[in-house]
Amino acid sequence: MKYRSRLLALAAMAALGLASPMLAQAQNKVNLGVAIPAATHSFAAGLVYWANEAKKELEKDPNIKVTIKTASGAPEQANQLQDLVTATKIDSLVILPFESAALTRPVQQVKAKGVYVTVVDRGLTDTSAQDAYVSGDNTAFGKVPAEYLAKALNGKGNIVALRGIPTTIDNERMDAFNAVMKNHPGIKVLDAKHGNWNRDDAFKVMQDYLTRFKEIDAVWAADDDMAFGVLRAIEQAKRKDIKIVFGGAGAKAMVKTLMDGSNPLIQANVSYSPKFLYDAIKMTALARKKGEKLPASTIVPSVLITKANAKDFYFPDSPF
Amino acid sequence: MPQERTDAPPAPGRAWRLPTLGPLLGLVLLCIAGTLLNREFATVDNAMNVLTRTAFIGIIAVGMCFVIISGGIDLSVGSMAALIAGVVILLMNRIAPLGWPPVAVVMVGMAAAVLLGALFGLAHGLLITRGRIEPFIVTLGTLGIFRAYLTYFADGGALALDNALADAYGPVYYGSLLGVPIPVWIFALVALAGAVLLNRTAFGRYVQAIGSNEQVARYAAVDVDRIKVLTYTLLGVCVGIATLLYVPRLGSASPTTGLLWELEAIAAVIVGGTALRGGAGSIGGTVIGAILLSVISNILNLTSIISVYLNAAVQGFVIIAVAFMQRRRP
Predict the structure, then answer these.
(1) What percent helix, strand, coil does chain A show, rounded to 5?
(2) pLDDT of residue A22
(3) What are phi and psi of B82, to 5 degrees?
(4) B42, B197, B219, B233: which has the fewest C-beta neighbours closer than 10 Å?
(5) More confident residue, A38 or A140
(6) Burial of B17 (C-beta count, 10 Å sphere; 0-12/13-18/19+)
(7) CA pair distance B188, B194, nearest whole angstrom
(8) What is the spatial distance between Cα A36 and Cα A80, in angstroms, rounded to a whole number?
């Protein structure tokens, strides 16, 4: 009996002794999972591109492994989370949730298994399910163009606006835009209709704005894809009253137009680059490697892009 | 005398004129409402905008009308249009550096659009008849396949036509003849050809016969499989024509191109008085149905009396109301 228990104790100690250097090594290794929406539109394609760029750079370090999963819907993303935990055995997760509400519980379960969770862009409905939050600045996305247009029009004129797909992001942007415009009573926002972040829909909405309003000074297209459709509609109607079309997000074709000064209607843009995913992945992986934590909330600022600084926002290899 | 009257057959033509009356009435009411809400609605410019926009869905709906009358369905037309647009843009960008004049390149692109549409339609027809797979399943499958390939070619982003080509191609959408935009002319020609094909040829009669009773059509020595393959090919050609008009509008194709066009085209056909179960239908009704659908969103854009969140609901109410007006009495 005594011998046996002693032997057991010895064996246990030996096992611990052997295991401890392995444990120390495991702490240095990072097995990171990335869950993002699939590339079904150009912004999402940009996300996929930047995720892969981050993976390429991080995996130069043999201690870091990055697994990227793209989903075309919330249920698929929830399944991928389970796979990442059980099959890939990740210890850190960077997720851009397809829908905030639908993915809150699946992410909670992942975190309950001891995985470090960084949520990007769309916050979860229960923030205790995330360790860190990295997002673009949707308030500035509406505020920056509003301030720019108010100044460019000298506080007087007519603006029509386009909105994206009805979502919280879209509301935040619109509210921020309207909040600035409240301080400029000389500027009238004639209407704001949904163009669904889609070129074709924006073209139709703009055509009808042009039919309806005979004096328009500026258009807040609120997205570069929508700005593209808006420009075509203005071109077709041969209207000369419109002085500025303000897009948003800094798609590469629009930043190029800005750099070259090839369209007088395009004078400025506001950044909202899918590159924030790249930043989030790198920050998470490097912090985990050192065993550090990220700040609870990081906001990647949206800033005004003009001809002067456009080259800093031009990424010719990205699909966005 | 009164007894004779009740036994008399309905006047010729009444059978197809009646179902068109409901949507026509709906369209007239909508136009009156639109004019009351905003006087700009009744201008020629606005009417041309609406008709030009309708051209894509309208041309596809004419082809869809044949498929539905024959008892089939095609869910893939939106994805098919997107893929054709993408492939045609890639093709034109590829052959432009060979030194051909831009107009020639554009002609090649336009021919390729129609040819691709015909090939896709032919593939659908063969899978449905020779492969004996339900049209719903075949076209649900290709709906995913076509769009996925476009997304792959575009790398998730947008495929854009080179500037020189876009300038040469532009007039096909933006140009006009006698004050009427080119797409509207083509829409009218396609609708006219469709009406003649459906009502004045043997092919049209066979399509209706197959839709009302396939077995009887077979016994009557109609080559059912061949006619069905032809209807899907015809629809493919219509999608090709719609796409060759679509490409010059924005000069680009992206994974959101043609999203939900299939439902709009099917809705136009059904609102126009064609039965979803097949057998009978009219091209005139389909054209009115397609115009009606785009007039609704036009009116909503020209006013701001209703919350933008309810746009889709308004469209839904109108579709149901019009379908109610043209319902068949037993």
Answers:
(1) 50, 20, 30
(2) 44
(3) -65, -45
(4) B219
(5) A140
(6) middle
(7) 10
(8) 10
Nearest CA in chain B to A72: B148
Contacts of A236 in chain B (CB under 8 A): 174
CATH architecture, domain defined by B18-26+39-325: Orthogonal Bundle (1.10)
Q: Residue B154: list chain A partners with CB under 8 A.
A: 45, 319
Contact B124, B139 (CB under 8 A): yes
Distances (CA, A) of B33 to B29, B286, B298, B323: 6, 22, 12, 19
Q: What is the pLDDT of residues A163-217, one digit of tens each?
A: 988 777 888 899 999 999 999 999 999 999 999 888 899 999 999 999 999 999 9
Outline which parts of chain A fall under CATH 3.40.50.2300.
28-136+276-300, 138-270
Give me the interface pTM, i.e. the ipTM. Answer: 0.73
CATH number of the domain located at residue range(s) A28-136+276-300 in this protein: 3.40.50.2300
Contact indicator for A37, B149 with CB cutoff of 8 Å: no
H/E/C letters for each residue in B244-271? Answer: HHHHHHHCEECCCCCCCHHHHHHHHHHH
The domain A138-270 having CATH identifier 3.40.50.2300: the answer here is yes
Residue A189 host element (H or E)? strand A187-194
Q: Is A226 exposed, middle or buried (0-12, 13-18, 19+ CB in 10 A)?
A: buried
What's the whole-model pTM score? 0.77
Closest among A151, A169, A156 to A222, alpha carbons compared: A169
Cβ contact B301–A204 (<8 Å)? yes
A222 neighbors A169 (Cβ within 8 angstroms) = no
| pLDDT tens-digit readout, A28-54 | 688 899 999 887 777 888 889 999 999
The pair phi, psi for residue A117, each rounded to 5°, is -115, 125
Which residues, 6 or more positions from B15, have their beta carbon under 8 angstroms from its beta carbon?
B280
pLDDT in tens, B220-251: 989 999 999 999 999 999 999 999 999 998 88
Q: Which residues of B touch A72 (CB under 8 A)?
A: none
Tell me the two tokens of residue A218: 């500026």
Written as one letter, the residue type at A204 is: K
Contact yes or no for A194 and B249 at CB 8 A: no
Residue of B328, B117, B326, B109 whose CA lies nearest to B242: B117
